[in-house]
C-alpha cells in the first residue's frame, strides 16, 4: 500500500458502491470513511473533517444536492472538494450541482483510473489553495508587524530624548551639590533607573527587529542573547515573584541563527512560562542549555505549574498574528517563534504533565 495522509469520505446508501470505492481508494493508501446518508455524513464531518468527499446524488432523506448545499454554505466545510457520483446524465441536474458548488462529477459505475485521477487532481488543487492562503496570511502578518514596529520605534526614539536631558540634569545637579550626601544618593538612584530604562529601550530595538526579520545564516552566542532577554523581562518576572534558575553548559558553540530572531524565540518561551505561572505558589522557571553529540544545542524552558494537565497556554494556541501586545511588545504568538526555529534547521516541542509542569524544548543547530 502506498503511503498517503489524505482522508476521503464516501457518502452513499448503496453498500456495494461503498465497498467498491473503498477498495479502490485504500489500494492507493487513502484513509476512507463511510457514511450511508446525509445525517451520518454531517456527524462524521463534525468529528473528522475529510480532505475530499465522494457524494451520491440520489439518496433517501437528504439528497446529495441538499448535503452539498449545506456543506458549501458552512465556512468550516466550504473548501472541501466534493465529487458527485451519479448515474444521472441530465444536463440541468449537473448545472444545478455546479451552482451549489460541487467540484467534479463521476459517472456510476466508477472507472478506476478516472476516479483516482480526479481525486488526486482535486487534492492537489486544495493543497495549492492552502499554500496560497498561508502565504497571503504571512504577508498580511509582515505588513501589520511593519506598522507595529514603526510605531514602537517612534515611541522609543521619543523616550530617548527626555532620557538624555534627565541624564544631563542629574550630572549638573551632582556638580552643583557635591557635599550633599542625601541628594547624591537620590541622584544615584535616579541614574540607576535611567540606565534601566535605557537598557530596556535598547533591547526593545533589538526585539522589534526580531519580529520582522527572516531567519538568517548568521551565528550568534546564545548566552549573550539570553542575558539580554533576561534583562528585558527582569521587571516583569520580579513583579510576578518568579524565580529563574539557569543550568547552562560551559563553552557552548555558536548557534546557526540570527541573534534578533533567537531573541524573539527566547522572549516567547519565557512569556509563555510566565503566563502559565499566574496564581501559582512559589513560581519558578528553569532554563537549561546543553550541547548534544550531533552538533545541536537543546534549550529547555520549564515552569513548575503542577496544576496544568496539558498544553493549554494561550501563546501556543494563538493565531499567527495577534494585536494583543504584552508589556514587552511580543506582537506575535509562539507560532512565529516556531517558524523561526524550523527555518533555522531546528525544532520545538512541548511536554506537560500533571504534577510536573510544562517544559518547552527548542533544538538549535550549532555552527
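^ C-alpha cells above, recovered residues below v
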Amino acid at each position: 500500500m502506498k503511503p498517503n495522509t489524505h482522508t476521503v469520505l464516501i457518502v452513499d446508501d448503496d453498500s456495494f458502491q461503498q465497498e467498491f470505492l473503498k477498495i479502490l481508494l485504500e489500494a492507493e493508501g487513502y484513509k476512507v470513511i463511510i457514511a450511508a446518508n446525509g445525517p451520518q455524513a454531517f456527524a462524521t464531518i463534525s468529528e473528522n473533517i475529510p480532505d475530499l468527499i465522494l457524494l451520491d446524488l440520489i439518496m433517501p432523506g437528504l439528497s446529495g444536492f441538499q448535503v452539498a448545499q449545506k456543506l458549501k454554505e458552512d465556512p468550516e466545510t466550504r473548501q472541501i472538494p466534493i465529487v458527485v457520483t451519479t448515474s444521472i446524465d441530465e444536463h440541468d441536474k449537473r448545472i444545478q450541482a455546479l451552482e451549489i458548488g460541487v467540484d467534479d462529477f463521476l459517472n456510476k459505475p466508477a472507472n478506476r483510473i478516472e476516479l483516482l485521477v480526479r481525486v488526486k487532481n482535486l487534492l492537489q488543487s486544495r493543497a495549492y489553495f492552502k499554500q496560497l492562503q498561508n502565504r497571503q496570511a504571512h504577508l498580511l502578518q509582515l505588513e501589520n508587524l511593519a506598522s507595529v514596529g514603526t510605531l514602537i520605534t517612534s515611541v522609543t526614539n521619543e523616550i530617548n530624548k527626555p532620557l538624555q536631558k534627565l541624564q544631563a540634569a542629574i550630572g549638573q545637579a551632582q556638580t552643583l551639590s557635591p557635599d550633599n550626601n542625601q541628594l547624591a544618593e537620590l541622584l544615584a538612584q535616579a541614574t540607576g533607573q535611567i540606565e534601566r530604562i535605557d537598557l530596556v529601550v535598547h533591547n526593545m530595538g533589538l526585539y522589534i527587529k526580531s519580529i520582522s526579520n527572516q531567519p538568517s545564516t548568521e551565528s550568534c552566542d546564545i548566552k549573550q542573547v539570553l542575558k539580554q532577554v533576561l534583562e528585558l523581562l527582569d521587571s516583569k518576572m520580579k513583579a510576578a515573584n518568579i524565580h529563574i534558575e539557569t543550568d547552562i553548559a560551559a563553552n557552548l558553540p555558536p548557534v546557526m541563527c540570527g541573534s534578533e530572531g533567537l531573541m524573539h524565540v527566547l522572549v516567547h518561551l519565557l512569556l509563555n512560562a510566565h503566563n502559565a505561572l499566574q496564581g501559582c505558589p512559589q513560581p519558578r522557571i528553569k532554563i537549561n542549555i546543553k550541547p548534544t553529540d550531533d552538533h545541536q544545542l537543546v534549550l529547555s524552558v520549564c515552569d513548575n505549574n503542577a496544576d496544568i494537565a496539558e498544553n493549554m497556554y494561550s501563546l501556543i494556541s494563538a493565531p499567527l498574528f495577534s494585536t494583543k501586545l504584552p508589556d514587552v511588545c511580543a506582537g506575535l504568538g509562539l507560532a512565529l517563534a516556531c517558524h523561526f526555529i524550523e527555518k533555522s534547521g531546528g525544532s520545538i516541542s512541548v511536554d506537560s504533565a500533571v504534577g510536573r509542569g510544562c517544559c518547552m524544548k527548542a533544538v538549535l543547530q550549532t555552527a
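The chain has three domains: 7-110, 140-210, 222-365.
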